[in-house]
Amino acid sequence: MDxxxxxxxxxxxxxxxxxxxxxAFSLAREGVDVTIVARTPGPLEExxxxxxxxxxxxxxxxxTDITSVEGRSLALEACPSPDILVNNAGGPPxxxxxxxxxxxxxxxxxxxxxxxxELIKATVDxxxxxxxxxxxxxxxxAVKAPIxxxxxxxxxxxxxxxxxAGIARKTVRQNVTINGLLPGPFDTDxxxxxMKAVADKAGRPLDEVAAERAKGNPAGRFGYPxxxxxxxxxxxxxxxxxxxxxxILMDGGAFPGTL
Length: 259
Hints:
Blueprint: E1 9-12, H1 18-29, E2 33-38, H2 41-55, E3 59-63, H3 69-78, E4 84-87, H4 102-130, E5 133-138, H5 151-171, E6 176-183, H6 189-202, H7 206-216, H8 225-235, E7 247-250
Parallel strand pairs: 1-2, 1-4, 2-3, 4-5, 5-6, 6-7
Helix pairs in contact: 1-2, 1-8, 4-5, 6-7
InterPro entries: NAD(P)-bd_dom_sf (IPR036291), SDR (IPR050259), SDR_fam (IPR002347)
Pfam family, one: adh_short_C2
Organism: Pelagibius litoralis
C-alpha cells in the first residue's frame, strides 16, 4: 500500500534505537525525510547512516535531550515545520511509589507528558494551516492496564492521553490527526531493563524471566519493533485521516478487555 506521504517531513523523538528507531525506518521507507532525535550521538549517527543507506531519504540527526527546553528548540530548529510528529521518550524507572519524591514525579511528567504537549503546541497550528498533519504519541499499554511497578509512567502517560482526547477532535477538521500507539511487550532495551528489575527482585535469571513472560503472552512471543514501526507509518499516512483521538494497543492480545 502506498501511504501517500513521500516527500513529507517527520520529526521522530528517541529514535536511535527501539520503537522510535523502528518508526523512523518505516517512515523513511515511505519516502519521508526524517529528523531523528536522541541523547547519545554515537547510536544516533549509526541509525541515521543506516536509514540513509537503506532508503535514500534525507536524514538529519540531532543529539539532544528532547525533554529539555533547549533540546526541543534544537529539534525544531532542525525540523521547523514537520508534517509528521512522533512523540517518544524513555519511560521513568520502575519502583515502589513510597520511594518516589516530588522530583521523581516532575521528571516523569516532563518527559512523558509535558514534552509531547510542548511539541504538539509548537507544530499543530502550522499543520492545520497546511491542511495535513499526523501526530503519533508512543505511550504504553499501561495506559489501559496499569502496571504496579510503573506508577510514574502510568500517571504521566495517562495525563498525556487525557490531554490528547480533548484536542484531537478539534484538529481533525483540518486533516490533522493525533493518536496514541500503545506498545505492550516489545523486544527492546526498555523491556529488558524492566524485566531485569523483576528478575533481580525475585533472585532469578533474566533469561528465565524473559522466556516465561514471552510464553505467557497470548501471541507466545514479544513484539518485533518493525511491526510497531509499520503501524506508526500507517497512522501517519493519507489513508488514516479518519482515525483521531484513538489509543491503539499493540500487545499480542495481552489486554483481556473489549474496550
